[in-house]
# Entry
Amino acid sequence: MSASLLPVASPVPEKRFSFLRAMLLALALGGLVFVSLVAWVNSEPKTVGLRRKPMAVHFVTLPKPPRPHPIVRPRPLPKPQPVPPKPRPIVHHRPVPLPTPVKKVPPPRPKAVPRPPTPPPPPSRAVVAQAVDRYAVMLRTRIQQGLVVPPRVAALHLSGKAVVAFELTPAGRLLWVRIMRSSGIGAIDRAALAAVRDRSYPSFTKSMPQRATVFRVRVGLNDRRHRF
# Structure
């Protein structure tokens, strides 16, 4: 095969074309910059009919600054002199005497306290009742023996019975006496009261209750002036 030969362009015209294109772009950009500057200058406001007054400038002398106060530096304090330590006083301890041994004394033996005698058992009710009855019989006998018949009762041959009540302490002391049942004749009642007051009475026996006791005794006179 025979190869066909093509015509080859020379490189010189291409270089010239690129240079021209760059120059055109540069001129276009410079024109745009110039147009924008002119538009900006024309856009500033213009003062119409106003005149600028001259400004007066005055020179003022400022006062001198005050002198600074002198800095007073404190004097250095004198160095403290070391104080010698005081000697500690010497304390002489006195020897403590040893305690003297105490002799142990045995405690005294307690003395034997004698026991009190055991009291006897209290008497029974029957024994107490018998003792009170015997004492009451003794009282009636003693009162009847001391009865004094009034002359008016003996002259009129009067008779009557009165029941007398009275209270005695365990020592035999009379506390009070009064008529519990009258005989109907005042002279006989008064004679019965006088017979009780004028008598002395013995103490109570051990079998009797050791407290004040009230007794009732029948005292009277018959028509023959005999005591009963």
